[in-house]
Design brief:
This protein is mainly α and 322 residues long. It has two domains: 35-287, no CATH class; 288-322. The chain has helices at 2-21, 23-29, 52-60, 82-89, 99-102, 105-113, 115-118, 145-159, 168-175, 208-229, 239-242, 245-253, 255-258, 271-285, 289-318, and strands spanning 186-188, 191-193, 196-197, 200-201.
Length: 322
């Protein structure tokens, strides 16, 4: 019993010390924000049932979406390369192929009609002060604008991959990859992945001059992005380990809740897509976590078995002194 009492005392003091150093200290030093589960309560719901066929005509025509965006699944490349687009708009407009699977429908609808509100960038872009957001609002094609927006959203959802087929890499690329880099290469499921840059995954080069040319493009893109946002967005290689899942999710859901006036837009992803992004960051920042967790379980089993036999051995050695 004496040993169990000593163990209980040591365990109690250890846990109290850990709490004061980690959870309690963290709670005092960092603002805690509760998320809303990516429900976007401030955004208006789509009140009409969309028609994908009509939506395609609007996206390709009156909506003028293909004037800036690629739709690779429809065989439509971007009108400009990423570096030129960033020089023109501040950031490269996303390929619309899978936005219907990554972004919430309400967010997409509001993004089409009122992009600065959807992105929570009204403080940065105020038309009354001549501060125009690079993406123009859609004012309709002469019909019911709510119906037209619903049609466009329906089309974007129709061409996207099914939600169950959306991979972590795809979700990250659409939601985060045009602003954030992932500096470190990593291995996942036996496949080597190169470092991610804001203009795509860094290829392997045969000639040094080709590598330098690619890096020059990345630097040019980053210069445009820095001018647009005021600072270069952080590399996300180790972000999941330094910030944690809760912080990243709530920050993505509403950046203004943490940093009033930040130039980072609300991303507008669905809850499922947010989980995919987190999974990608975990794959990058801790690719061997599954192996480590398995080793941890085996170590704990060993410790319990060892403790059991140690207690039996102790009783045998000390039995005459008790």
């Amino acid at each position: 019993m004496k040993e169990l009492f000593i163990l209980a005392v040591v365990t109690t003091f250890t846990l109290v010390t850990y709490y004061l150093v980690e959870p309690f200290a963290h709670s005092q030093m960092h603002k805690h924000v509760e998320g809303e589960g990516f429900t976007y309560k401030d955004l208006p719901a789509l009140t009409k049932t969309g028609d994908a066929t009509r939506g395609k005509d609007l996206v390709m025509g009156a909506g003028a979406c293909v004037g800036c965006h690629a739709i690779s699944v429809e065989g439509m490349p971007a009108p400009m390369d990423a570096v030129t687009s960033a020089a023109s708009y501040g950031v490269n407009p996303p390929d619309l192929s899978n936005v219907g699977a990554v972004f919430d429908a309400k967010f997409l609808g509001d993004l089409i009609k009122n992009p600065t509100h959807a992105l929570l960038l009204e403080k940065k872009f105020d038309p009354a002060k001549g501060q125009m957001y690079p993406m123009p609002a859609f004012y309709g094609a002469g019909g019911d604008i709510d119906q037209e927006v619903a049609d466009m959203v329906a089309y974007l959802q129709s061409i996207a991959v099914k939600k169950e087929d959306l991979t972590p890499n795809m979700a990250f690329e659409v939601a985060c990859g045009r602003c954030h880099a992932v500096h470190y290469p990593y291995v996942l499921d036996g496949k080597n992945h190169s470092a991610w840059t804001q203009i795509g995954e860094k290829p392997k080069f045969k000639h040094k001059q080709d590598e330098l040319a690619f890096e020059t493009k990345v630097l040019d893109y980053q210069d445009s992005l820095t001018k647009y946002l005021g600072t270069l967005p952080p590399d996300l290689s180790m972000y999941i380990r330094s910030r944690g899942e809760h912080y990243i999710k709530t920050f993505v859901e509403d950046p203004q809740a943490y940093l009033k006036g930040t130039a980072m837009p609300r991303v507008g992803v669905t809850a499922e897509a947010a989980d995919k992004v987190i999974e990608h960051l975990e794959n990058v920042g801790d690719a061997k976590r599954h192996e480590r967790e398995e080793v941890g379980k085996n170590v704990m089993i060993y410790i319990f078995i060892f403790a059991f036999f140690a207690i039996l051995w102790k009783k045998e050695v000390w039995k005459e002194l008790h």
